Amino acid sequence: MSDRARITGHQISRTVRIDVPRERVWTALTEPEQITEWFGDGVGFTALEVGGTGSVDWDDYGSFPIEFTEVAPLEALGFRWSGIPADALDEYSTHVRFSLADAGESTDVTVVETGFETLPGGTRYRRDRLEQNREGWDVELDELAIYLEG
Fold first, then answer.
1. Which residues are CB-neighbours of 57 under 8 A, at least 6 positions away?
2. What pLDDT, in 10s, does the model give residues 67-95?
3. Is residue 1 one of the residues assigned to a domain?
4. For 58, phi and psi rounded to 5 degrees?
5. How far is 109 from 42, CA to CA, in rounded Å?
6. Are 84 and 106 within 8 A, CB to CB?
7. pTM for this predicted structure
8. CA–CA separation, 90 vs 18, rounded Å?
9. Counts of helices then strands in the chain (DSSP H, E)
10. Structural domain of residue 74, as residue ranges?
11. Disulfide engineering: 5 pairs with which of 14, 31, 49, 86, CB 3.0-4.6 Å?
């Protein structure tokens, strides 16, 4: 199962089935040296716990601050993150939640990104951000699957 990301209202969602156990997916979502194999060029955070902060960095785009909102090992990981390069989270941030579910010997990984309706900048800006991030999750989750499945 690897449909493309969908926009519904002001929300993006996508589920991919990855042919590895849930523990392996969790590690790829939470260990900085593994995150950079599929998401960003640099990742660091203070602690993997609610309230922990850090950033995801792309060499060509800049630094995107994050703050963890949910850490449920092997089940769900949530964070707010800046949609634009910034020094701190601000009114341009959205919320991302990964959830993991067993699918036989595989794992269904679902990402849902919300909060676009509260972004400043008006309807056109919000729709552009939705579309950019939808395309981004298509690429990033494909890269996660490729990384984990070898």
1. 40, 41, 42, 43, 63, 64
2. 999 999 999 999 999 988 888 899 999 99
3. no
4. -120, 130
5. 22
6. no
7. 0.94
8. 33
9. 3, 8
10. 6-149
11. 14
